[in-house]
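Notes from the 1:1 (GR / supervisor)

We went over the backlog. Supervisor wanted to see one worked example end to end before approving the batch request, so GR pasted a single chain during the call. The sequence is below; no edits were made to it. Supervisor asked that the structure be written out right there so they could see what the output format looks like.
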Amino acid sequence: MDTQLTRRGKAVAALTVVCVLLAAVFGARSLNAVVAPGLVALAASVLVVRRSGTPTVKRTVPPDGHPDETHQATLAVEDCGPGHYELRDILGSGFRAAGGSHHVTETDRTIRYDVEYDHRGTHEFGPVRGTVTDVFGLASQSIRIDSVDEVLVYPRLVDPPTAVRSVLETVVDLERQPGRDEFDSLREYVRGDSPRDVHWKSSAKQPDDELVVKEFLGTTPTDSVRIAVDASGPRSSVDAAARAAASVAITLLDEGVEVGLETPDASVPANVGSDQRTAILATLARLRTGTPDGTDETIRISTDGDGALVHAGGHSVRFESGGAPSSITGGAESAPRTDERTEVAS
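Structure output shown during the call:
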């Protein structure tokens, strides 16, 4: 990229030109004491900036997570030249972070910054942009480092309203899943485990605030459900469907129910456990508009202009509402469908 003079460099250049003109008119040799150092400083600054070049960056991205979580990202900057670098990681719209660039010094070439997850989707870290200047700040050059990484932001999880739980009870028993009362052992917490399984008394005794969770006997569930997500409309409606599907799925998984998922773009076979939680959340993070191909779902999530609807066992209820469920003709299979497949930007 082109090397340019900074404001300070332009001021030095202007002063040097004025001194040259004055020397030419008045013959004041003493002005050479200003002209010569100015020319040398400008030439040296341009040379240093051009020799500095573009560094390499190794980014360590935070883990996938939910909205409102805060994590730390790092940039390890290597192969720096003799100039002074000021870099900034460009973030996608799904993140919130304190603005501003970060200085890279000879003693500290690792940039650390906190980022808050904002909304569902696949979001990017990068590219890295910045400038390199000389030690006097007279010349600069723009830098662009094409280093891009992706992080998934899962749908926001909420407790299903009472009316939604009532509809779910028509297809699965949420209160009497086997094995939940048959304690077996303790193990380390794995991301995706239900908070209800954390053994807080034992966790308090662990070093570094590590969590442990309870393992139960009889983990083979007697119920298995398949959730189909039929999403249409604007981004807000698709997000509402993803939030409803994720909340319902995690609620069922927490109760020991096998849960499968069908979306317009993906299919997750029914299973249980922390890996299943992650697979379902990751699929719903990528949810776009469209209608799933399968028709054998137990629960269907659909959208309308006001949000998401949950259909199961011949009833439907709005997910955001606490009202009583209403009957629908023909059961969950009669939930509104659409063939629209217009993408919603993540």
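Supervisor's comment: Residues 32-52 form the longest helix (21 residues).
Batch request approved.
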